[in-house]
Amino acid sequence: MKICYLINNINPKNGWGRYASDLIYNVRKKGHETIILKEMDDGLEGEVVLKRGIGMFLSAIKIRKHLRKCDIIHALDVYPYGIIAYLANLFLRKKMIITAQGTYSIAPFYNIKTRYLAKLACNSADILIAISHYTKDEFLKELRVNKVEVINHGIDLDKFYKDREVSNENYILSVGALKFRKGYHISIPAFAEVKKRIPDLKYKIVGDQSDRNYFEKLKKLVKEYGVEQAVEFLSNLSDYELGKLYSQAKLFILTSVNEGHHFEGFGLVFLEAAAAGLPVIGTLDNGIEDAVKNGYNGILVPQNDVEKTTDAMIEILKDKNRLQEMSDASYQWAQQHSLLNMINEYLDLYNQSLV
Fold this sequence. Notes:
This protein has helices spanning 15-29, 55-67, 78-88, 103-106, 115-124, 133-140, 157-160, 184-197, 212-224, 239-248, 268-275, 288-291, 306-317, 320-336, 339-354; strands spanning 2-7, 33-38, 47-48, 72-75, 95-100, 127-130, 148-150, 170-175, 201-206, 231-234, 251-253, 280-283, 298-301. The protein is α/β, with parallel strands linked by helices. α11 (268-275) links the parallel β11 and β12 (280-283).
């Protein structure tokens, strides 16, 4: 079959691009043809032809020649890609699939300029896919459909599955952009409390620091709690450097919080941590509930709860047997959420749509 993908970019160095490249290149490996239409010029393959706002209508006209050659159109988000796919597919009647990528797919329903077209596009899709059950539930609040499937993101085990390495440092790890929604203002105070019980414990935080206001608040928070020497902020790491941090850490933590209608859609970093054999701590009431099996390979705590977060860290770090059990469980959990499994689920849905 031939699938036409409407995407943001295909650069594996960022979250959007990594998901798209993992999906598209592995679908090709299964023997299928693909066409890539994208919004960003990342210097890689694909035609840069997708625009936002009023430009969506021109984009729809330009891509119709590509859609005529395809069996399936797959938009990897609602706005603008799902809307463009809908407009371009008028009268072509190709099979259309839209994937809801979490908070970014819900946002168009809260914008008066995009709400109507977003609903039209989603209601017209042959199949809607959500990356987590929480995303699906949020999606269904805005749509009157019963055709939303859930396909979790998958982890490339060849890239992240590594043996645990011994480190001279005793540290916990977070990976994610430094912004309010990632909840570092919760994990840092919790870490400071845990450090009173485990004096040599350190905290490494890896993520984009472009939100300077929030970054400055975190640095002040670190100073306020007197843990300046124990908390390290890192960014722009290579895959090798990040993999090394995963393989030597004791625990992974990301205490994401919902911010208005913005939420953690899934949390691929939890699978990356699991593939490295790390017990994990996340939060409830968001897509992380699909990325972590609560009580098995990690603990999920209420959002904005420093005390419960502290207790969860101590429960895992102070009990060596518990730590090892969750480490072993994380390996198994990552195996169940492999990239290969994700690809097979997508191909099954592609085939179903053509029946």
